[in-house]
Amino acid sequence: MPVAESSRRPAASVALRHVTTVLFNDARRRENIYFGVLAVLLLVGFPLLLDTFHLNLVGKYLTYAFVALGLVLCWGYGGILSLGQGVFFGLGGYCMAMFLKLEASDIASTSIQSTPGIPDFMDWNQLTKLPAFWVPFKSLFLTVVAIPLVPSVLALALSAAMFKRRVGGVYFAIITQAVAAILSILIIGQQGYTGGVNGITDLKTLHGWDIRSDSAKMILYFVNAALLLGAIALSFSIIRSKLGRLLLAVRDREERVLFTGYDVANIKTVVFVLAAAFSAVGGAMFTLQVGFMSPSFVGIVPSIEMVICAAVGGRTSLLGAVYGTLIVNYGKTYFSEAFPELWLFVIGALFIAVVMIFPDGLAGLDLRKALHGLLTRASGFARKRKKPAALVPPAAPSAPQTNAGSQ
Amino acid sequence: MNAAIWAMQAFTGLSTFCVLLLMALGLAIIFGQMGVINMAHGEFMTVGAYTTYLLSEVSQRWLPGLTNWYFFLSIAVSFLLAGAFGLLVEHLMIRKLYRRPLDTLLATWGLSLIMQQGFRSVFGAREVSAKLPDWLMGSVKPSAAIDIPINGLVVIGLTAALTALVFFALFSTRFGIDVRATMQNRPMASAAGINTARVDRLTFGLGCGLAGVAGAAFTTIGSTGPTSGSAYIVDTFLVVVFGGAQSLFGTIASAFSIAQTQATTEFFMTGSMAKVVTLSAIILILMVRPQGLFALKVRR
Question: Could you tell me the pTM of the whole model?
Answer without folding.
Answer: 0.85
